[in-house]
């Protein structure tokens, strides 16, 4: 990436008692991107955000903004603003006063303050609530006021810590769309923390998957889904069959693998393993297809159980010696007649992207 807006260079955070919050993180964030920090509880997402904001001083490494070392700067001296999980609005102030507060601190003249407050409220669709008390607002409305307050000072970067976690599922989905629209409209760099992979996949330009204070992979949502680099990422993003497969030879630039009878075909890249050598290969449940009849590429399987998922069925089946696989199949015709114990034939979709996974 040429000249990132923000660069974390070997950033390390060791807390009192020797807990490693961040273990030498390197991360470049581009101007104007929507970047999400994703990972399980305790992986270091919030610590990363707090280090960028300046609330937490790293115990090693540097934070650069536009190439300038901002590591020693206090939060309020950074052109960065944070939207907190609980919104942190001032309950004794009305909507307009909440939004205006930061402008007042920066000694912006009253007429300009009013204009900026009106523009920020307009951006979040809350112009009609300018004089409302924040205690009278719904969760979604408070979230919008918190966003307006954060963008009104035109930060270079907006940091969002689980900003939608207090909202119910329906409103959350609606706010995801609004957040993305707001970010593209402003062209401001957004860095968001979430542990919700669906949210991360639907909203982000790039996702940083974290695990144990380290970065496992940084990629676009589609790349993370199609080509997870490690077992951790593969099992964290969506559902993935992690199959131990033996290399069975090269054919027409494809590497053939056998996973307990299931045939896998992967474009040859790099050095091929030795014959019989084993690799972990990821196969998405929707890439395993069911056939009523046996064919040269199919593998016999026995249905173990079926879970109804609305328009799809999730089938657990057993192949080979005792390998369990998960299959997602549309609910239609013959599949709706399947039940536990049914013998079926399965094969992997030809155009499936089956990543070879690192440990
Ligand atoms: N102030 C602190 N003192 C000691 N340890 C801390 C402190 N803050 C965070 N940690 C530890 O650092 C690690 C990373 O914490 P962090 O809050 O960044 O994780 P997270 O990914 O944001 O988790 P969550 O999704 O639960 O908020 C955890 O092991 C946590 O217990």
From TrEMBL:
Its main location: membrane. It is found in: Cell inner membrane. Belongs to the ABC transporter superfamily. PROSITE patterns: ABC_TRANSPORTER_1, ABC_TRANSPORTER_2. One of its GO terms (cellular component) is ATP-binding cassette (ABC) transporter complex. It comes from Rhizobium setariae. This is ABC transporter ATP-binding protein. Residues 6-237 form the ABC transporter domain. Keywords: ATP-binding, Nucleotide-binding, Transport. One of its GO terms (molecular function) is ATP binding. Pfam families: ABC_tran, TOBE_2. It is a peripheral membrane protein.
